[in-house]
Amino acid sequence: MNRRSFVKNSSLGLGAIPLLRKDWLMKFMQDNPYKMRMLRNDVGIFTEKGGTIGYYLSRKNIAIVDAEFPEQSKHLIDALQKDPGKPFEILINTHHHGDHTSGNISFKGIVTHVAAHSNSLINQQRVAKEQNKEDQQLYPDLTYGDSWEYRKLKENIKTHYYGPAHTNGDSIIHFPHANIAHVGDLVFNRRWAFVDRAAGASVKNWIVVLDKLQQVFDKDTLFIFGHAFDPDKVTGYKDDLKAMQDYLSRLLDFVGKQIKAGKTREEILKATAIPGVSDWQGDGIEHGLQAAYEELIEGII
Fold first, then answer.
1. d(CA 103, CA 70)
2. In which domain, by residue range, is 249 found?
3. % of the chain at pLDDT higher than 90
4. Does the pTM of the predicted model rise above 0.85?
């Protein structure tokens, strides 16, 4: 745990620290913006900029889920390599977006394998080519389909894929012994979600995927989310999956009713709230409205 995390989690906090000491500490925290903390059974999380990173520390090696951006992934690597002798065995991407895969490149030459769903690899290659950033990529050398298991660690890592949602390549990375599942951007916890239609996303099936997750995992499963409105709430339980599912259902229902009422796309995109959704916040409500509109119009015309 870095000093920022220690201070935040200590019983004293900032309130009991003299003013001059507090000023120094605030500057230190700004200079060291990342957070690391262990969750259960050698599984922890790292957050700084981009999608939440999960990591598994065995006595012999390390597994990583997602990689944020190059600068941030280097911070993670430096922190984890303070325990010498533990090689990086595998890096798994939940999906292709740059805030989850741009940092892959930092692991070049130091990780044995990079893995992702086959659609995620296709999307990553396509976007890199479109942006002329192919030289900045470390692509997966292992790909999988609906289910897969990596058995070269003390704890086997299992992956699941239930079809298009946030993209058409979102997979769930499960650490069974810890009962922790990294769901990537299948959950934007209380934050308006981005729906990547260009990468095969489906709001309708996203709702189905979240329902499936609630059936597959039990009440004790701890989920790691890709993003959250409150940066400290990037983990949660099935109730949070249900809340995300309800938000998406209400999004589709609202846009569908607006279309039936004769509203134009421009009029629908002006909405600043969705009826029945009270705890989703932040910027980007229009992304979901746009995606829902396009998906529903396709079913009409």
1. 4
2. 33-300
3. 84
4. yes
